[in-house]
Design brief:
Chain lengths: 438, 341
């Protein structure tokens, strides 16, 4: 009878909302140990029946919930996934090879096209690597503007992710709500960089432009308004019984699994590992602002959602602090041999013009050597490896983008889960195919 | 003109007019669904064709009609062609036994008696359940004959889902049957005469809610739209259909929505009767129309608001909650009726 009542509640309650109890109870719940999580994972995966017939379904590359051109060949036993064979590379554009033919400055627009949802974060990661290689100091204002732009990209990415993830669970209305709110962030980015998606805003030694007039005012309004929006999302989603049932204990991926498959970013933090390169290996202005690393402990789809919601709030805090403490001074380093001159100077002053020719045709003077620099992109750790032989072009460049590793982790994530859960899990680890296939 | 001939003429008029009215209604329901979706999502919905975009459905129909009729090479062609009609025709059939105004009584039209029902059928409730079950074949056969794995899974999901929820639906309807002491829709509506507190929804509230939830599953609408779950199965059993064949499925879905809303209002909300006796001067068909519109709006509201259940959750709701509850409701109703008389 109790079971029956519980089930009746589950049917009726979604219509009444707020069925999952007060937040305090959840916050106080003891953190599960790794063994507990493993046991939970084993329980949530369905055992396979012996001798059952398996049918093969090709999901993708043209499939509504494959977030691009990812292809997964599923072996299904009824609704249960027996095995997955992922296939990537449908969007391969040879980015790394293209980079070898270009000067360090010309590579920046290519990096936009990796993770086109968060273009500036990719620019930023690349520039950090090159600057580390040639030991170039970025002026304080440049670092702060970079931080703001990176965090705006994180906001845009997480809000879009939420809409897509919820749409994969079968409701389209929420997708439109998220798109509406993402528009505020994209407007800000457009004002700052001139583009909505492919910003190409970072430059070696700083950023392309100073903050435009009126940006600070609009930005403050937006970051005051977005946490309220997040509270609204949580009211709709977090306390929704159907979402809770669809996301809780689904797609458990413990910290051990995450390390084994190099899953980083929100998915790793949802497994209880407080790893965030913004804190652990600070770059730009992250060591000068105060923020918390969002961590959750249950390692399931639901907790990945919670982590991202927390991160939106933290990003707003970071942006606010950057605006408060915005230093005066140049926004880009001036270095004749290594950076581009200001465009406004090129037409007026012959030294700048010579510098511009030199930089465009020969590229910056980068010493021999190799470097690896990882930054915290919205989807996870984005590493850049560069080997330089002293020319203006890299001898070899390698991007270790998060989506590729998240895409390869799909089989261990979904084996034994149901088809409906697969789309939710795939969305929850956040894969963008431009980032994955490169 | 003698009375039987007049009745025959009336019958022919009704039999022609009713489907036409439903088809027109469906065209506008599709428009309203898109318009409401727009409102819920902060968009405007269709705006170009006709005033306020209201002719959008006609544009869609002409587009679908002018498209190439594609049949997959390896499909089971006769079955593939037949499947849309297996859904489309039963959708209309139930309307024949549904009263949309007073039946019997004295002469009320040009000196002849005009019954607001095509056929006053004694076992209408059984007909409704039986005909409703035929449409399951349409869905399953559509999935099977397409010769595609997505279609097959969608068809099987739909089949299992419809069969499970039909049980709960059947049991909840029996409660109404016991209260009206009849299986004819005309008698059921007459049993709810008077003001709205005589409606069967009040004593049969459990049965009514179960019936409504079961119809959501029967209609393949959110949160039970697993059969065509776009994010999982592309379009489920509709994946291989295109052009007007697909249009027929879509059309049948909305006709079913009208019919189920009409039955919902007939069984539990007094059918064509006014909620208060003082409002009886407004004709019955208008009241029925208002009730149908209200239920259709409720279906749309649910569709654009909540999430989809997972397959095993759907089944456990059907078998572990709705079915026991509907049997319990039936038993309680029977005992109460036996005691009260």
């Amino acid at each position: 009878m109790k079971d029956l009542l519980q089930n009746v509640r589950q049917v009726v309650m979604p219509l009444l909302a707020d069925a999952h109890g007060p937040d305090e109870a959840r916050e106080e719940a003891p953190r599960p140990t790794l063994e507990e999580l493993k046991a939970r994972k084993a329980r949530s995966r369905q055992p396979l029946e012996v001798g059952s017939e398996v049918i093969t379904v090709s999901m993708g590359p043209q499939h509504p919930s494959m977030h691009g051109v990812y292809r997964a060949e599923l072996d299904l036993d009824g609704e249960i996934i027996v095995d997955v064979r992922p296939e990537v590379g449908n969007l391969h554009r040879g980015v790394e090879k293209l980079c070898e033919e270009r000067t360090y400055h010309q590579i920046i627009p290519i990096t936009d096209r990796l993770d086109y949802i968060a273009g500036f974060a990719m620019n930023h990661g690349y520039c950090e690597a090159v600057e580390k290689l040639m030991d170039l100091e970025v002026p304080a204002r440049g670092r702060y503007i970079r931080t703001i732009a990176s965090e705006l990209c994180r906001l845009s990415n997480h809000i879009l992710w939420l809409g897509v993830h919820i749409m994969d669970l079968g409701t389209q209305t929420f997708f439109c709500i998220c798109f509406r709110d993402r528009e505020y962030v994209l407007d800000l980015l457009e004002m700052l960089t001139g583009a909505r998606l492919t910003h190409s805003f970072a430059r070696l030694g700083g950023v392309a432009k100073d903050l435009p007039d009126g940006f600070e005012h609009r930005c403050r309004k937006a970051i005051e308004f977005l946490p309220k929006r997040v509270a609204e999302y949580e009211r709709i989603i977090k306390h929704n019984r159907i979402y809770y049932k669809r996301a809780k204990n689904v797609g458990i991926f413990t910290s051990e699994d995450c390390f084994a498959w190099r899953v980083t970013g929100p998915a790793l933090r949802a497994a209880g590992v407080p790893r965030d390169l913004r804190k652990d290996d600070p770059y730009a202005a992250y060591d000068e602002v105060d923020f918390e690393v969002a961590v959750e402990y249950n390692a399931d789809v639901y907790d990945r959602f919670l982590v991202r919601m927390k991160e939106i709030r933290e990003s707003c805090k970071i942006i606010e602090q950057c605006l408060d403490n915005m230093p005066a001074g140049p926004f880009v380093a001036r270095d004749i041999t290594r950076t581009l001159p200001l465009k406004s100077d090129v037409m007026r002053d012959s030294a700048s013009m010579i510098q511009d020719f030199y930089q465009v045709f020969k590229g910056p003077a980068v010493p021999k050597g190799e470097v690896y620099r990882a930054t915290e992109a919205p989807k996870g750790e984005m590493g850049v490896y560069i080997r330089s032989e002293g020319a203006g072009r890299p001898a070899r460049i390698r991007f270790t983008t998060p989506s590729f590793y998240h895409g390869q982790a799909l089989p261990p994530l979904v084996r034994g889960e149901m088809v409906s859960d697969m789309v939710a899990i795939f969305a929850s680890i956040d894969v963008v195919l431009g980032d994955c296939d490169r | 003109m003698s009375d039987p001939i007049a009745q025959l003429i009336f019958l022919i008029i009704k039999a022609i007019l009713l489907p036409v009215i439903i088809v027109m209604m469906v065209a506008f329901i599709i428009f309203f669904e898109r318009k409401f979706a727009g409102f819920f999502q902060g968009r405007v919905g269709p705006t170009y064709l006709g005033p306020w975009g209201s002719f959008q459905s006609f544009g869609d129909i002409f587009k679908l009609l002018s498209k190439e009729d594609l049949i997959p090479d390896k499909a089971d062609k006769p079955v593939f062609r037949m499947a849309p009609y297996l859904i489309f025709i039963p959708a209309f059939l139930v309307m024949a036994v549904l009263p949309f105004g007073p039946v019997g009584g004295e002469a009320n039209l040009f000196g002849y008696r005009f019954d607001y029902v095509i056929a006053n059928f004694d076992a209408a409730l059984v007909l409704f359940l039986a005909v409703g079950a035929i449409s399951v074949y349409g869905v399953v056969l559509a999935g099977w004959s397409s010769n595609s794995n997505f279609s097959l899974i969608g068809g099987l999901r739909a089949g299992a889902q419809m069969v499970s929820y039909e049980l709960a639906m059947g049991f909840s309807v029996v409660g109404v049957m016991l209260m009206a002491n009849s299986m004819s829709f005309v008698d059921i509506v007459n049993g709810q005469a008077g003001n709205f507190w005589n409606w069967y929804f009040i004593p049969q509230v459990v049965g009514g809610v179960i019936f409504f939830i079961a119809t959501l599953a029967e209609l393949n609408r959110t949160p039970f739209d697993l059969a065509e779950a776009e994010q999982e199965l592309v379009a489920g059993y509709l994946t291989e259909y295109s052009g007007m064949r697909w249009g027929l499925f879509l059309f049948a879905e909305y006709v079913n929505m009208v019919v189920i809303s009409a039955i919902m209002s007939t069984l539990y909300f007094g059918g064509w009767r006014a909620p208060l006796e003082v409002l009886d001067f407004i004709p019955g068909p208008i009241w029925l129309f208002i009730k149908i519109a209200a239920f259709i709006f409720l279906y749309m509201w649910i569709r654009w608001t909540i999430f989809r259940y997972r397959y095993n959750q759907l089944m456990s709701i059907g078998w572990k909650v709705l079915l026991p509850l509907s049997i319990l409701n039936l038993a309680v109703t029977a005992v109460v009726i036996a005691i009260v008389g």
